[in-house]
Amino acid sequence: MSVQEVLLAVDLDKYHDLFTPIAPDSLAIALVEGNAVVKQVGDATACTQILSSDDLTDGVFERHSRDIHSYQYETVAQVVVCFRATDHSCSAALIDSLAHCIQTEVSLNAELTEMTDELTSRYEELNLVFQDKDDRDNVSNTDRQLNEIVVNSHHYLQVSFCIMLLNNQNLHFESITDDVHAPLIRSLSDIAKPINAWLQENPGSHVYNNGLEHELSVSSELRSLRHIITPITFGNDNNVTGFLLVGRPQSESIFTNSDKNLLEVMAQKASKIVRTTYDDLTGLLWRAPFELNVEQAVANSKPPPNRDGLLVIDIDRMQVVNEAYGHDAGDALLRLVGKKLDSLINNGDIIARIGGDQFGVLVNGSQSLNVHRIAARIVDGINTLEFSWRGETVEVSASAGITLLSSESGQAAHALAEAELACSSAKEAGGGRFEIFNSDDSQLVERHAQMHQVSVIQHALKNERFVLYAQPIVPLADPDREPHAEILIRLLDDDGNIVPPGAFLPAAERYNLMPSIDRWVVSRTLKAVTEHAASAPENRLVITINLSGQSLSDTGFIDFIRHCLDQYKPRPGSICFEVTETAAIRDLTLAEAFMTELRSRGVSFALDDFGTGLSSFSYLQKLPLDALKIDGSFVRDIMNDPVAATMVQAINDVGHAMGLVTIAEFVTDKDIASKLTTFGIDYGQGFALAKPMPVEAFLASFDTPSRWESAL
Fold first, then answer.
1. How large a percentage of the chain has pLDDT more than 90?
2. Is 452 inside a domain boundary?
């Protein structure tokens, strides 16, 4: 704001109204800058005459002047008071007080104006910051968002150029108004790495207003300009991945702290955008933006022989590296593999880290033969990597899977699933090799179907599409014994049809979804059983629930069961967990601790599929069990296979000797049921005794067990 604008803002009327009663002979008050009247109040004619007259010796008029100042300026102006000359002229002290009041207002107006300008500037900066939306969920707009930051910073700061270089991601954005800086911009690409390294050692923004040379040797043109250089950081350690650079000639205004702060904010926004698109550890693309590129390649698919190829690369034995040397070693290996992959692909190909130890490569417009060659080059390149950790050499190899993209590839997830299946096939064949997805390969097709079931299972868990069934476990020798029932799970498809467990449980086991399913089954079963017990407390029913080996090894699963037991408070002895023999012997110590704690809470345990292990009897005494379920592969043959009958008798005898209840599975006809009764087997389970039914129907019919109990 100019001096005149500050003076015009003074309200002279109020001073005139206050001053006239004290000094009745006063005619006018004026603010004068130089020789010009900026503002006046009172008798304008007399004021003009008095101010324009150099000779006031006739005694008719008087004029008194006082200088006023503001901390922003030197002498601003004069306060001039005009009087009619009398014997009672105003005292000098009164005029000094008037000038002081006006000076105070001038200073306050100037300060308020400066604050307003500053707030306006801050508002414009905030508007600039927020108009560059870092939409962290929309990875498809990454380049556009970064370019907007450059363009808007250039426009707001009124610089000759603004450049963003992201060295690790090979990205370059610029906004230029002065062509004279083209050589500088070309040279910056060559020294991007040294600038990154220098900023890592010299953190923060750097403002150079006098063209001073700094520690980094850059082009002489940059040293001759006013410029700000601000790092863009990346990853948990805030490593410098690039920088924002703005510049203007020496003849233009200097950069302020406000300019530096604004550029830092824009650099932070760029960092956030980069983090949502690129992996912190390797600097490669994340899976989500990679899938967008795959989908675009599918949409623009080429006919043979120029079809794009999709590779999935998996580091072999990565878990061994993590367990033997720690996750720091695993991270170092992932970084090394990422750099190696980047050096092995062709220009135009896209590489990403798509999982824990998985990488993806989109091979652009290559013939299938070239895709094979690239896959071989990648696998061979990783297999020959030299990786050492704290003096120890670690052997590295990788497996790769290939699928060729076409208009029939569908969504990116489908194409990636095909390549992942081929990669898994290569790993199962020993690793260090690649495989090509072939839709005619029955094993790959089966695996592909299982991967489809993964999304079906996840949908069912989220939308309550699972249902519980119960199959009675019927007393054989003593009909008055407490009845049991095993909880079974089914899935409802979109049409409401029942999907049997054999259609989805193998996929759940392969892709580690069993703990989620077990949690669902445990909580829903305890809820149903507790509600039934509240309405029929006299019924003595034991419900058995299957637990997978994955759940046994899940460290948080026992906490979940504790929570459910505390929440529903089932009758002690009414809940029995079934654990397969294979799962139990996988980690005897873990299984024993798991069972011991829950048995102290009133839960019993049955060992399922007993007899299929190679050393069943040797470890039986180590587990705190309550029941043995004899594997159905022995039970179904007891009528025509003496060895099977002997095995069933032996298991029953050992079980009883240890105080365990024995249960025979797969009772398919009444003859088998009668034979088991003669053996002294306690319970039988199978279609000849009772078929599975919805758990609600089972609990409703429990009062009349003859509905489902077979006549033996």
1. 27
2. no
